[in-house]
Amino acid sequence: MVTSWPKNFPALGTGANAFAERIERMSGGRMRVKVHGAGEMVPAMEVFDAVSAGTAEMGHSASYYWRGKVAAAQFFTAVPFGMTTTETNAWLYDGDGQSLWDEVYAEHNLKPFPVGNTGTQMAGWFKKEIKSLEDMQGLKLRLPGLAGEAMSGIGVTTMTTPGSEIFTSMQTGVLDAADWVGPYNDLAFGLHQVADYYYTSAWNEPSAILEGTVNLDAWKALPDDLKAVVTEAARASNLAMISEFALRNAEALKTLVDEHGVKLRTFPDDVMSALHESSKEVLQKQIDSDEASRRVYDSYRAFQQKVRPFTDVGEFAYLKARDKQLG
């Protein structure tokens, strides 16, 4: 298994390791998976091609890295102002998200699975405080996927920098700001050492799926019981990583604020409004130019509209009530 993460990197790299271990354990040792960190076998941004070609049988990465190859792929990581982790999993497991993903990736000789989710991410590290939309103009920001395009639409220069290069790029001025994942992974990379302001309200990645891929020829060659093993190991790994992020992000956020003096901020209203409008334009342009993207996003949007009313009166209403009572 080739990955886009540094070997043994918290949650992402260790999550890939745990996925491999579950496969071996659940198969009774009939399947063994060796995990390679980014750059050990292939570079971080070549996982898709390596698994598609059969250079490696499996991969672990994030689908929006492949937007230049498969435009519809990015919908299977994160959508700006999109669904929560719970809603996203419901779309994949109980809606038609997984079948659409299978359809899109089959053309590239891949079988995909959700193998982890970061949960709600942060909105990024900034060297200077953002007080108005004008402050965003000309910033060099690491932000991939559809959200990166939306940022470009409001005057930000965006790029997809491999995770392992973010710290140095911030330190040397190649980047003025960077979105990575959340407190747990950001602390591990030491991003608090190169930026003072940590922005929240993750319009960009309200949920971020981590994908596992299997070479489709290798997948078809597996007997049904081993296909079931991989499928259920992926499902278990998805849940385990969500739980890990929920705990570790909370612990890391406290460390960042209490021990390192990180300043938490939210974007001003004019920035959020501009990002929402830009996101709508980006999504419309995407579905107008690519039929697969239209099919996927039509499904995604319809599912979000279906489940949002209960999210609003259920979890969201409870969180507001809890905050009011607990302070």
From TrEMBL:
One Pfam family recorded for the sequence: DctP
UniProt: Na(+) binding residues: 180
Keyword Signal: yes
A molecular-function term among this protein's GO annotations: metal ion binding
GO terms (BP aspect): transmembrane transport
Annotated Gene Ontology cellular component terms: tripartite ATP-independent periplasmic transporter complex
Superkingdom field: Bacteria
Keywords: Metal-binding, Signal
CDD domains reported for this sequence: PBP2_TRAP_ketoacid_lactate_like
InterPro entries tied to this protein: DctP_fam, SBP_TakP-like, TRAP_DctP_sf
Keyword Metal-binding in record: yes
Binding positions (substrate): 121, 142, 179, 205
Protein name listed in UniProt: Monocarboxylate 2-oxoacid-binding periplasmic protein
Organism: Halomonas elongata
